[in-house]
Amino acid sequence: MADTGRAGQTLENYPLYIRSVPTENELKFHYTVHTSLDVVDEKISAMGKALVDQRELYLGLLYPTEDYKVYGYVTNSKVKFVMVVDSSNTALRDNEIRSMFRKLHNSYTDIMCNPFYNPGDRIHSRAFDNMVNSMMMQVC
Amino acid sequence: GWMNKHLNLVPALVVVFYELDWDEPQWKEKQSECATRVEIVRQSLQGRNTKVAVVLIQKKTPLPPGEDVIASERAAALCNACDLSGKSLFVLPHTDHLVGYIIRLENAFYEHAQTYYYTEIRRVKSHKEFLNKTTHQLLFVRHQFKIAFFSELKQDTQNALKNYRTAYNLVHELRAHETNMLEIKTMAGFINYKICRLCFQHNTPLDAIAQFRKHIDLCKKKIGSAELAFEHAAWMSKQFQAFGDLFDEAIKLGLTAIQTQNPGFYYQQAAYYAQERKQLASMLCNHDSSVIYPNPDPLETQTGVLDFYGQRPWRQGILSFDLSDPEKEKMGILSLQLKEKNVLHSELIITLLSNAVAQFKKYKCPRMKSHLMVQMGEEYYYAKDYAKALKLLDYVMCEYRSEGWCTLLTSILTTALKCSYLMAQLKDYITYSLELLGRASTLKEDQKSRIEKNLIKVLMNESPDPEPDCDTAAVKASQKLWADRVSLAGSNVFTIEVQDFIPFVQCKAKFLAPSFHVDVPVQFDVYLRADCPHPIRFSKLCISFNNQDYNQYCVVEEAYQKSDILEQSSQGTMCLVPGKTRKFTFKFVAKTEDVGKKIEITSVDLILGSESGRCVILNWRGGGGDAASSQEALQAARSFRRRPKLPDNEVHWDSLTIQASTMIISRVPNISVQLRHEPPALTNEMYCLIVTVQSHEDTVAKDVKLTAGLKPGQDANLTQKTQVTLHGTDACDESFPALLPDIPVGDLQPGEKLEKPIYIRCGTVGARMFLVYVSYLIDTIVEGKEILCKCHRDETVTIETVFPFDVAVKFVSTKLEHLDRVFADIPFLLMTDILSASPWPLTIVTTQLQLSPSMTPVDQLESYVENVVLQTGESASECFCLRCPPVTNASGVATGCYIISWKRSSPVESVPVVSTVITLPHVIVESIPLHVNADLPSFGRVRESLPVRYHLQNKTDLVQDVEVSVEPSDAFMFSGLKQIRLRILPGTQQEMLYNFYPLMAGYQQLPSLHVNLLRFPNFTNQLLRRFIPTHIFVKVRLGMTEDNSIMS
C-alpha cells in the first residue's frame, strides 16, 4: 500500500490538480506537497538560465522524510509535478518514478491542447483523472 | 556511576608542588617534608593507578643538566625518598620564562595522564579476555564502552570512535525483551550520541547521518512495553533532538548544511515524535482522578540513584526476563503513567517546532517554515494559549492565501475561528467567519451555513453557537466571555479592511465611462455578490471619493427593524442573494471646480448589521477587489469560454471590470469658430485673420473671451519675430506680444455672430501655428441643478509666411553694360528690379533711394514705379544715374539703401503700408587716368554729315602724352585728324572733332578711336570701348523713305 499524492502546479504555485490515496490524511499530503515547493524553487533557481533548453525535467528525490519520499518534476513552462510516495515502497525505483512523471506530463500536455481549457484553471478532466487513477492503482 | 567517577572523581595524575631550591641549606629537612606530603597523597588515592608527580618551585635559574653535580645528586636522593621515578620529578624555576616552563610542564603532565588511561584500557581489556560471549554478553558491551570512553579521555578520538562502533554493534546483538528494552535503547542512544559527536568532530557529517539513520531504523520498532509506548516516543523524540543539537553545534563550528539536509528536519521529526508521545500519553494515561499515586513510590530507590542507566527502579539488577513480581510491576507502570500525565507536552512540542522554524528560516524553506508555524499554532491551541495560536496562524495565513492553497487556508482558518471564538475576540471572529464563508473556503455547505448563522447572531449582538470539537470546559468559559461582550455597550462598530483577505461579499465598482462632461451627471454602478449559502441583508452601502463632497450622494440605506434580519426575504433591495450579482446605480452631478480633475472611488463600505446591534463595515479600498480578485480577473481575461446567456438585467461577474476613476471634462462647446484669411502671409505685413464666432447655444453665452496668437510651445525665435495686435491700421513694432490672452468680447446672444479681425506681423519667413481660443460661461441645468459651466473651443491654423518680392540690384555703365566696378567721377547706372513673389497682387506705393554720402546723384532721384500694381511674377524696374567721386578706399563704397513702400492690393483703403528697406551692395570704385566721352547724335543718315566730338579728359595730376588714331571703317568716310600726338594738362580736356560721313544704312560700326597713353600702358582700348560708342544706327536718306514706302 502506498500513499501517493500528486499535484501539478503553475508558476504562481497554486495547485492545479491534487489527489491522494487514501483520502483520510489528505491535509497532511497537501502540506507535504506545499513544503516540497521550497526545494523545487531552489533547484530551479540553482539550475540557472543558461541550460534551459537541455535541462533535465526530472528533479529526482526532493527530500526524504521519515515516512515518505517526495519527487519533483518541472516542465519547461515551469509547471511543477510533485509525487509523494511511501518510503517503504521499494518497488518504485528512480526509473519508474521518471516514467510516471513523463506520463503525467504527456497527459498534462493533452489538457493544454484542449482549446476549451484555460491555462491556469484547475484541472477537471476525466482523461486526466483516469490516467492518475490507473497510475495509482499500479503503484498500490 | 562510573563515568562520573572517572570524569570528576578519580584523577589520572596528582602533582605535588613544593618550594625547594637545589642549594637549600636545610636540604634534609625539606626533603623529608616533601616525602611525607607525597606519601599523604598516595595514601588518599588508595591503590588507584593514579600517577603522582612532584614539581619543585625554585627561585634560581637551573644550570644546564649534567653541570650541576649537587643538583643531580639531590634529585636522585629526593626521588628515592618519595619513591618516584626520575621522570616524575620536575623543576619549575620561578623566573622570566614562566609561560614557556608551564607549557612544557603541561605537555609532560598530559603524557603522564595518557599513560594512566592507557594502563586503564589495558586493565579493562584484560578483564574482557576472560569473558565468554554467551554468558557475559552484557559485560562485553560494558567493557567495550569503557575502552572507548577511556580512549576518549585519552583524547584518542579515532580509537574511541572505533571502539564505540564495536560497542554499538554489540548492543544490538543483545537479546532484547520487554523488560530490558529500555535499558538497551538507553545504551544504544548513548553510544549513538557518542559516535555521531565524534563523526562531526572528525568532519565526516555524512558518516554521522548514516549512523543516525541506521540507529533510528534499528530502534524504530523496539517499542517495548505497550503500556509505556509513550516512553518510546519520548525516546525517539529525544534521539532526533539530540542529533539536531549535535548537527547545529557542528554548523556553528564551521560545517555547512544544505536546504535538504539541515538540523531543522531533525527537530521537526523530534516534534512529530513528541506529538505522538502526547497522543499516546493521552490514550494510555487517561486514569480517573480517583486513581492515586501508589505508596510507597515504586520509583524511589534506597540510594536515590539508579545503579545502571535504563533499568526500572523497581527491578534493579535483575537479569532474568520473566516478571518476578507482577503486582510490583503494575504499580511501577501506573506510577510512570501518572508521572507522564504531568508532563507539559505542548511546551516540549512547541520548543522543538520553534527550533525547527529557526533552522528552516536559515535554509531558505519559507513554506516549510509556514507549515511548522501552523503546527505551532495548533499546538498552542491545544495548550489553550489561544492568543499565541491566533498570532501565529494569522501570520502564516496570508502566505497560503497568496499562493492559492485553499484547502490548507480553510483548515487554518477553521482553527483560527475556534481560537477567536474561545477568546470571544469579536473582530477576529467576524473576519474569519467572513473568509470561511467566502469563495476561497472549501468547507461544506452545512458548515458554511452554520458559520453564517453564527455570524448573523453576532451581528445581532447575541452569542454565537460554540464551534464544534472544542474543549467543553473552554467552551463554558468562552460562553461567559461572550455574555460579557454582549452586555457591554459601545465599541460595537468594526471596520474590516477586505484588501488582505477573501470575504464572502465581492464588490466591483465601475464608472460607466472613463470621462464625463461636467453638464452630464456622473454615473457609476456598484456590483455586489455574496458567496455565502443564505441570503444576507446589509444596512448601508456607501462610497467615498477623493473629493468627499460627493460621498453624500452615494449612499444606499435602509433602516430596518431588528426582527427583519432573520426574515429570509430575498426581494428587498438590501439583501444579497447567493450567486446573484446585485447592481446599484449611483448618479451625481460633478462640481464645476472639478473640471479637468479625476474623480476616484477611494473606498466602498458595506455595512452589515445595525447600529443598535453590532455593526461591521466591510471596507474595500478603491473600486473593490480583494486578495484573490486580481488573479481571478487575469484568468477571466484569458478565458475563451462562452458564457451562458443571462436575462438582460443580470451580468456575468467575471466579465465585470473595475473602473475606479473617471475624468471630469468641460462641457462640449456649442459655438463655432471660423477663421478667414488669405494665406500665405507676407513678411512684415499686417496679416489679417478674421475670427468669426457664432453661438449655437440656447441661452446667452456670457463673458466670451478670445485668446489669439502664436501657439505656445514653438520655437522661441518665432515668439520674438511675431507680433499680434487688434488694430491693423497702424503698424506694430517688436514690443507687441506674440499672443493676446483673454480679450473680452462681451456676451453672445443665441445665434449671434461676432467677427473680430486679428492682425499678425511675421518678421521672418516660415510656418507658424496660430491658436484661436474662445471661452465663455454659460448656465445649464443638470438634474434640476443649475450650474455655471465654462466652455471653450479652440482652433489652430498654420500660416506660411513668404517674402513679398525679390529685389535685384545691379550696376551698369551708361551703355547699359554690366559693371563689376565703377570708375570714379564717371556716371553709372543703378538698376533695381522688384520681382513680385506674392500670390496676391501688390501695390508699390512708392520707392525711395537713399544714397550714402559717398554717392551723388547725377539727376533727380524720383521714383518711377509709384502706385504700380504687380501681379505674381511681374517685376518693376527702376534706374538711377549716379556718380561716385574718387575715393581712396579700395575695398568698396557703400551705396545706400532702397526703401520700398508697399501694401497688399486691396479694395480696403485702410491696409497699412509696409516699408521694406533693402541695403544696396557696396561697389568697388576705381580711378582711371583718362576719360573719353563722345558727343554724337543718336543716329545718322546716309550721305549726311555726322559730326562727332570726342572729349578726352585728363583725370590725373600729370601732363599726359596721348597718341590718338582713328581706324577707318567701310561704312564711313570721315574727316578730321587721323593720327595725332598731343598733350593734355592735368584737369583739362581736349576736344577732337570728326566729321563722319555714313555710306551705308543700318547698324554700322563707327571708325574706331584708338588712344594710347604713353605713361599708362595699362590703359587699353578695351577700357576705352566702355565709354565711347562703337556703333551707330544709320538711317536712309529722307528722299529714300518714300521710295521704301512705295516699295513696301
UniProtKB/TrEMBL annotation, chain A:
Classification via InterPro entries: Longin-like_dom_sf, Sedlin, TRAPPC2L
Localization (cell): Cytoplasm, Perinuclear region
Key words of the record: ER-Golgi transport, Transport
Entries under CDD domains matching the protein: TRAPPC2L (cd14854)
Gene Ontology biological-process annotations: endoplasmic reticulum to Golgi vesicle-mediated transport
GO CC terms of this entry: endoplasmic reticulum; Golgi apparatus; perinuclear region of cytoplasm
Pfam families: Sedlin_N (PF04628)
Similarity comment: Belongs to the TRAPP small subunits family. Sedlin subfamily.
Protein's name according to its UniProt entry: Trafficking protein particle complex subunit 2-like protein
Species per Swiss-Prot/TrEMBL record: Buteo japonicus
TrEMBL record, chain B:
InterPro entries per record: TPC11, TRAPPC11_C
Primary localization class, coarse: Golgi
Keyword Transferase: no
Ranges for domain Trafficking protein particle complex subunit 11 C-terminal: 952-1011
Pfam family of the protein (one): Gryzun-like
Biological process per Gene Ontology, one example term: vesicle-mediated transport
Keyword entries, A-Z: ER-Golgi transport, Golgi apparatus, Transport
Record domain Trafficking protein particle complex subunit: where: 180-438
Record's subcellular location: Golgi apparatus, cis-Golgi network
GO annotation, cellular component aspect: Golgi apparatus
Main function: Involved in endoplasmic reticulum to Golgi apparatus trafficking at a very early stage.
Similarity field: Belongs to the TRAPPC11 family.
Name recorded for this polypeptide: Trafficking protein particle complex subunit 11
